Amino acid sequence: GHGGGGGCRATPEAIHVVMGNEACDLDSTVSTLVLAYFLAKRIPEKDLVFRDEIDLAGLHKAGLLTLTLVDHHVLPSKDSALEAAVVEVVDHRPLEWERRPPCKVTVELVGSCTTLVTERLLQARVPTLDSQIAALLYGTILLDCVNMAVEAGKATPRDACCISRLESMFSELQPRNRVFDALQRAKFDVSGLTTEQMLRKDLKSLVSKTATVAISAVYMSLQDFLHRPGLEQDLATFCHQKGFGLLIAMAISFGDHKKPFRQLAVYSPQAAFQEAGAYVSPTSQDLLNPFLGFWLFFQVCQALEGSTNPSLGLSRLETPCPAVRAYQQGNIGASRKKLLPIVREFLHQWGRSTQTTGPGMQPEISSCVPPARMDPQGAGRRDPSGAKDAPKAPRLSEEAAEEDTLMPPTPMNSLVDECPLHQGLPGVSPEAIFERVNRIATDRLLDGRSPEKKK
Prior knowledge:
Blueprint: E1 4-9, E2 11-19, H1 26-40, H2 56-61, E3 65-70, E4 86-91, E5 104-107, H3 113-124, H4 131-144, H5 157-169, H6 176-187, H7 195-201, E6 203-207, E7 212-218, H8 222-226, H9 231-242, E8 246-254, E9 260-267, H10 269-276, E10 280-281, H11 289-306, E11 314-317, E12 324-329, H12 336-353, E13 364-365, H13 398-405, H14 430-447
Parallel strand pairs: 2-3, 3-4, 4-5, 7-8
Antiparallel strand pairs: 1-2, 6-7, 8-9, 9-12, 10-13, 11-12
Helix pairs in contact: 1-3, 1-4, 4-5, 11-12
């Protein structure tokens, strides 16, 4: 949910909501709560609500809602109707579009959105900034800016200034290293979480007319993530249930001397369904919808590999999951915040190029199909020596290969009784044609070679 706090404005019925972003990470949560506390002077417990506990659409329709967006400035598509209620934005990422007065805009490219809230409190010199609030602000900025490490490329002079000011004003604050290490351990502690919970823990989504792409931050090495038991089934279920056409996971981990590493995994639900042997039924909109899913997968990978602003410095990694393409990211300073515009621009171009292919990206999965067959270990098996089985390239089944050897009937006059077409056209359904073409396309797209025929 979203972090949100509210305070009354003008009349008892009017409500001003301070709303954090969908990911609800520490930066979003703390900056939202502290700004709401500053604006309202106090926050009664009943006014501290989550996004799904308040009817924002109903309040807006009644003319009673005003919104401050914190740590984001673009409303999710499901909240787009609330656009007219936005009166203020506080964010630390580049503006995607310009908001006009009377909307107040505070957008600065600092390491932490909490820095912008801290600056406001310091400038106002209000009693709101007590030792408890200072500890919240201090820890959040340190975590977001990776303990002010230069090599992480996150901290700016304004972040550093806020940290120094808080330290000088509140001597009771714990040492930087102690605060950062404690928060970092908590942030990277994913023990007990399912794959679905890990993906949802820090999730952003981009929506276009033709596709919805999920971008999750995963706090472990990509190798460990890809070898989670039942991973492919979990990824397929996660994307299908939430309607994602593509999933990008940015794995963040730390090596020796606390050096950060970033790795990327791009996953296609369509590739997963094909690998599992599931039947993808054509929709009434577009028989070849699943192939758009394959094409989206490869085009997104190409866009990420070819990006120059910024360059991600990607190099391919081996992966035990055939439906996942994995990368080592050379540019560790390119956070997810910098990845989002690359994918957003791609979706914009993709939407324009696929306008004639129909609106649907997600294929309809037939309910009569048996469950997808997945390796119970999820990410390939290992032999005792630790070597992984190489993923098998998809190929046509034996039955399909046999079918290719059958000769077509000898052409005959259709008026002759013995003609094979005398009883009408063969009973070939669209589904059968689709399934056959599906197998051929899978082989060509994923294996990079034409189907082999038995001779």
